[in-house]
Amino acid sequence: MPAPKSFKQELVCVFGQPVAENPTQYMIEAAFKHHRLDWRYLTIEVAPKDLGDAVKGLRAMNFRGGNLTIPHKVAVIEHLDRTTDAAGLMGAVNCILRQGDELIGENTDGKGFVQSLRDVADPKGKRVVIFGAGGAARAIGVELGLAGVSHITVVNRSNSRGSDLAKLLNEKVKVEAKFVPWDGEYAVPEGTDVIVNATSIGLFPDVDARLALDMSSLKEGMVVADVIPNPPKTRLVREATDKGCAVIDGLGMLVNQGVIGFKLWTGIDPDPKIMRAALEEVFGS
Ligand code: NDP
Which domain holds residue 190? Predict the structure, then answer.
């Protein structure tokens, strides 16, 4: 084996708990290899009480950045120097970027989603229904608002989270939004262009779980998106495809948020095909 030119490697990481099933490492490492970068992406399990120390370690060891999974996305903010405007609005960070001595918090989840949407439709002026009001829904709602959608209906089981998100969208993002409590089958209103499942319904192993959504209200040509990456062909994705909707699966969003993070850390636009192929190997396409 030829001797390496240098023993110095650049490092990025994901902090989470647990992170045993986090697939991001596979796609980021595949892109490092494809672009011949001698970088490493480390998956590190960090307990909530140790998060501050872990971020200090990231600084001390000169990591170029990192990702955060639940439960660290909100708690990490106090350990960073600042956030981007969008991450500040969401109140959640899933990506850390080092600029000089500064650690900056960004949120690439919603941006990844909007990139997937742009592949099938221009978000401008669209009327959107989002199921869910957790971290993924907040990130998607804020980025859709910033991308110029005209109206967002937030449909959520718990009233407090749902109305908080609608308030954030109306008051801070300045997009017209309303909250509808999710009790029973929800029929999508006439004139809806885009539907997003941003709940965890359908995530492995509960693959047969079904959204309380009146499928007869879906119309041909509507865009139906699911954030669930595992499995990518969720029940919603399959049923919406049968109805003639344009479908976006959760793998696309996961790849796109990875593409954005990769570019922030390395300055290189990675090949999304390589990253998606790595994920498909893990999840099955
Ligand atoms: P949170 O725990 O913050 O939010 C979960 C949301 O799902 C809440 O709105 C919750 O409602 C709702 N929910 C959960 N179970 C049910 C149910 N049985 N019936 C009705 N509503 C339900 O999680 P996140 O927002 O961070 O993540 C949600 C999903 O998004 C996860 O599965 C995650 O894998 C996926 N995700 C995908 C990404 C990608 O790149 N593809 C990126 C980030 C997340 P309530 O408020 O009532 O509890």
Answer: 110-248
Q: How far is the CA of 92 from the centre of ligand 1 (A)?
A: 14
Which residues have any ligand 1 atom within 6 Å of their CB?
Answer: 70, 109, 112, 132-137, 156-158, 161, 198-201, 203, 227-229, 250, 253-254, 257
Please state the pTM of the whole predicted model: 0.94
* Nearest Cα residue to atom 3 of ligand 1: 134
Residues 42 and 83 in one domain: yes
Q: At 27, which CATH number?
A: 3.40.50.10860
Place of tokens 């960070």: 93
Examine residue 239 and state whether it is found in any structural domain, yes or no.
Answer: yes
Q: What is the pLDDT along the chain (285 residues), one digit of tens a residue?
A: 566 667 788 999 998 877 666 789 999 999 999 999 999 999 999 999 999 999 999 999 999 999 999 899 999 999 999 999 999 999 999 999 999 999 999 999 999 999 999 999 999 999 999 999 999 999 999 999 999 999 999 999 999 999 999 999 999 999 999 999 999 999 999 999 999 999 999 998 899 999 999 999 999 999 999 999 989 999 999 999 999 999 999 999 999 999 999 999 999 999 999 999 999 888 776
Q: Which residues contact 186 (CB under 8 A, 6 or more apart)?
A: 131, 155, 180, 212, 213, 214
- 263 tagged catalytic: no
Q: Residue 166 and residue 180: Cα distance in Å, rounded?
A: 9
Q: Establish if 4 belongs to a structural domain.
A: no
> Does 2 fall in a domain?
no
